[in-house]
Specification:
There is one protein chain. It is built from 9 helices and 16 strands. The protein is α/β, with parallel strands linked by helices. Strands 1-4-5-6-9-14-13-15 form an 8-stranded mixed sheet, sandwiched between helices. A two-stranded antiparallel ribbon has the order 2-3. Strands 7-11 form a two-stranded parallel ribbon. The longest helix has 21 residues. It is globular.
């Protein structure tokens, strides 16, 4: 086992209206991190992407906040007695200050993520995704948190919808937080990835549901459409990579496979007809992670890229001897991916 001690880690999932929509990557991340860094995790939220809690004996579906609470209690009994369960809201700075007390590392996963809902409720989206991010930054600095990793999305790269625009703003806030911290030791970085395969509301369970209901055809918005395919474990690995090696200000992008939507539909239901229904508002043909404008600041590793900040921060010097610069016209999206 590695000897690294990450101290107390808080998965920030204090969403607005938590009883109605309580989501986080915490349970799978907790399971993965526990086995990688045993007895170093003391405080987490609830599950976001998969709705499952993992332990040694398998996977349990989380159907409600209280069920998640009881599963977290069981985890505490099995592995670590210092786990605490908080309900709150990233908009509530006072509550965030209490949650961050004694925490060394924060993984910020809270956001309003549903694109059409964000388009219809722009002010609420800004309050959570932008003002909430600022609260995380302020509280982390004031409470002496050592490292903060904010989870981002492909939609923040050259955004065309409100959700993506708020997440781009959030990314910029976290990166600038390294300057905002002043003489404090708090460091901020960002991890950007696309859709998690099989996550709630994603295309795979949607297609599977249609097949189970006896559908005669599968709808695809555009036959040219491609998407990255990310396993939840890969997302967690990228977060842990950032926590371990970040200097502050980096934006991490995982190298992952991509797929064509018609190929995915045929893999799930080879005998069903595919119908093109038209692109939805705010939807892109390809998921984009790195733009050509980012290329001058992007370095490449075996399994991921890092976009370095355009500004410099006092006390932070980047040393990545195993990296190489990308081509000047490089861009990374699901349509030009060689994986």
């Amino acid at each position: 086992m590695p000897s690294r001690d990450f101290g107390k880690i808080l998965y920030s999932n204090l969403e607005n209206h938590p009883l109605a929509n309580f989501e986080s990557v915490s349970f799978p991340a907790l399971h993965f991190a526990f086995y990688t860094y045993p007895k170093r995790i003391y405080f987490v939220g609830l599950d976001t992407s998969s709705g499952h809690f993992f332990d040694k004996s398998g996977s349990y579906e989380v159907n409600s906040m209280m069920e998640g609470y009881h599963l977290l209690e069981n985890f505490a009994q099995l592995y670590c007695s210092d786990v605490r369960f908080f309900i709150g809201d990233v908009r509530d700075k006072e509550r965030m200050m209490r949650a961050f007390d004694g925490i060394d590392i924060v993984v910020h996963a809270a956001a309003l993520k549903q694109v059409p809902a964000c388009e219809y409720n722009p002010f609420e989206t800004v309050k959570t995704n932008v003002h909430g991010a600022q609260n995380v930054i302020d509280c982390a600095i004031d409470k002496g948190v050592k490292k903060v990793v904010a989870l981002s999305t492909d939609k923040a790269c050259a955004p065309i919808n409100l959700y993506g625009a708020t997440k781009l703003c959030s990314d910029k806030l976290f990166i600038a937080g390294n300057s905002y911290a002043g003489s404090k030791d708090t460091r901020f970085s960002v991890v950007r990835y696309g859709n998690v395969a099989g996550s709630r509301g994603s295309v795979i369970p949607f297609f599977q549901k249609l097949v189970a209901e006896g559908a005669k055809e599968l709808p695809i918005t555009d036959m040219r459409m491609t998407r990255f395919c990310l396993k939840l474990e890969q997302a967690v690995e990228m977060v842990l990579e950032a926590i371990e090696h970040m200097y502050g200000g980096e934006l991490y992008v995982k190298k992952i496979p991509s797929m064509k939507m018609p190929d995915l539909a045929k893999a799930i239901a080879p005998d069903l007809k595919i119908v093109e229904v038209g692109i939805r508002p705010g939807e892109k043909i390809h998921e984009q992670m790195i733009t050509k404008e980012d290329a001058p600041n992007t370095i490449e590793f075996k399994d991921f890229y890092i976009i370095l900040p355009q500004m410099s921060f006092a006390g932070i010097k980047y040393d990545y001897p195993d990296s190489k610069p990308v081509a000047p016209d490089f861009e990374y999206h699901s349509g030009n991916n060689d994986r």
